[in-house]
Amino acid sequence: MKIVLRQDVPKVGDAGSVQTVSNGYARNFLIPKGLAVVATDGELKVAAHNLAVKERKVARQEDLLRSLSDKIDGQRLTFTAKAGEQGRLYGSITASDVATALAAQVSEEIDRRRVVLDEPLRSIGEHTVTVHLVGRLRPQITVVIEAEASEEDETPADSETAPDAETETETEAAE
Q1: Class of the CATH-defined domain 2-64
Q2: What is the pLDDT averaged over residues 25-32?
Q3: What is the pLDDT of residues 112-137, one digit of tens each?
Q4: In the CATH scheme, what is the homologous superfamily, with its name and number, of domain 70-150?
């Protein structure tokens, strides 16, 4: 059965698209829930008109955001985080962290929902991240995560002097 989707349906399609699904799925689930309507001639014309309007809107937004895309494309963000010996971070770098750092670097607001991360970054190294602005505008940035210098690496001399001080205190207390 041909249907026109009114809302986005996972694994079926986006709102406004014409899809072919089984009769039972359409009659028993999609249509009663208001997720779709039967694809009549009138519905197909409305869907085609809505698609054309949507394409014009996306094209206008692409023109407006092209300069922002050029600013973002190729940016390199560096984060410093605590990490274990195998290079695994104790925390993670999230899309919100990337969006905040990127907004500070390009001096324009970047929504965290536009930063595409399947899961938060949890390892040291270089990661390529895509920023989905609108339509086909998807600039890529490089996120570099470096390990934070641990306290043990920074002050080995301090750890050697601390036991001597304790030994002197213990000696004085014994006398």
Answers
A1: alpha beta
A2: 95
A3: 999 999 899 999 999 999 999 888 88
A4: Ribosomal protein L9, C-terminal domain (3.10.430.100)
